[in-house]
Known about the structure:
Barwin-like endoglucanases; 6-stranded mixed beta barrel
Amino acid sequence: MALQEMASVCTFDCPDTCSLAVTVEDGRIVKVRGSAAAPYTAQVICTKVARDMAAFVHGPRRLLHPLRRSGPKGSGQFARIRWEEALDEIHRRVAAVIARWGPQAVMPLNYAGPHGFLAGDSMSLRFFHRLGASQLYRRALCGGVRNEAWVGTYGAVPGCPPELAEHAALNIVWGNNATVSNLHLVRAIRRAKRRGGRLVVIDPLRTKIAEQADLHLAVQPGTDTVLAWSVAAELERRGALDEAFIARHVLGAEALLARARAWPAARAAAVCGVPQDHILTFASWLAAAQPIVLAPGNGLERGRHGGSAVRAAIALPALIGKLGRGSGIVLGAGNAFPKTPDRLQRPDLAPAGTRTINILDVGRHLAEDDLDPPLRAVFIYNHNPIVVHPDQNRMRRGLAREDIFMVGIDVTMTESMAHCDIVLPAATHFEYADLYPSYGHHWLQRAEPVIPPQGEALPNTEIFRRLAARFGFDEPCFKAGDAELMDAALDAADPRLKGLRPSQIPTGRALPMTAPDGRPLVLFDTVFPATPSGKIELQSESLAARWGAAALLPDWRERHSDYPLRLISPASDKRISSTLGHLPGSLRAPPLLMNPQDAAARHLLSGAEVRVWNERGEVILPLVVSDAVPPGVVASEKGAWLATSRTGQTISALVSADMRADLAAGACFNDTAVEVGPL
């Protein structure tokens, strides 16, 4: 059969949501490259997607048939069964749980495997809402802290499209490993630099984008709030604040500046671990440059003061009045799309009073039975909790319990799926139709399948339709087809859709989300703050109401620990979180980076295997001695599977699930204290 090239979209957990051109031969993917359908991604994709998609879809670990566990949990021993058997057993065992414990003893455990509207959460949440299952607060795992900080400060509005970075006189990349996980932003920044623009990178790790920076501030993890305060105080000292803009558009500037004034550059430099003159240079460049673009990443939120760090950073453009007219903050992209989640997910089907469980607490609830009713049936889909959750060993104990019935739905036999009683084969994003917003840009895309589902795999929507039918849910919403679900995901009457129904958006051309006059959605150009006051709220009563009085303003307190090193976990260029972790490029343990001073003090040499430990666990990793991390900091990439470690643990085992950020009760992956020593 002749080769065919077809349009698709990358659905992995990445802000770029690239448009793809997929070459198919005899029903198999043979090549994937970038397409021009989305002008922002512009025919460029990351190496891992270009290289690994055939293995991801057609490789030996691909799940092709329903399975029933035939050995101990975690052993990977399964027997093939028919779909009817699988659905019957799920119904029988879940019904028994509900009969004894009630429907809230059942829970979905899902996150962000695919990012399409349909596969992400559509028919699945309709099913769990109708069942009366416990609901899951997912945003605490990642992104929720940053979102709360953004919405509390500016409202549920988009900041600016990342394309603005190309024309900025100063780009600031803060806590964002952009070369690995925000590729097209980096391309825009490079074009800006060729035009004479400057780049500041703030990150404890000397990432690839930091190597290209005009100024790299390698702050100690968790001190970003102090740095932002110090810069704000220096801007005030220089007379660089835009007092007129503040008077018209900003609430709480004086309260924030009162805290900032306590941090002159010399004091902040000592805490942040950066030279004083770097702080002063950063402030002077901010004052002088026009326009500026700030691109904060998820690294900024991953600590006890993560919400404060994001809020303090995004306050800086407001204090100097550099929003609009080419300046902006690359955040809030998800707000560019006219989403209608209640129509898509039908929360009205859930019984009143149904409890909501923080995703970070699931390991404890499973392992320790500290809920009433306890969890006795769990559906794991779009997620690999044993690898990505903090306090990995507690999660493992919970998943290993024989008295908790577990259903897994996935593309690949992950180490989480190996703990499930029934495993259902899910289709990849190349095998179903879906609609794709982005959390990193303002382009809406739709894709049709480029190959049929492999084996007996089914799209998530069809799996949950069949589950709903087997459970006797006969309401019309459970019979909705995928096109109907697409049309429920977005408001077709919104002018951003330009008269198109979502299910009719062309597959070969992305749709830009713009203002009614066709201009980009940019704060203080075409959109304005949507806070309760209608102003930028640097002091936020709404955040204080949601997260406690301390959240009124950004805050910071020094942390003390029994362990001397701070572990950070940047993104990998081989995986998207844990996705693709089973492929050849990810089968070895990622190295641990350590500063030469710390290595010498412990008599450790590059190339040796070392123990990394704290009270929660122990990981063995190969050591790389490098000044890419500052003294007191070690770094190892997130998302590696358990099989890469001789202890059967990865760095997630070292992270506390009980320590929480100051907003969104978020995870503190980069607030992990450890020690390192020889084997």
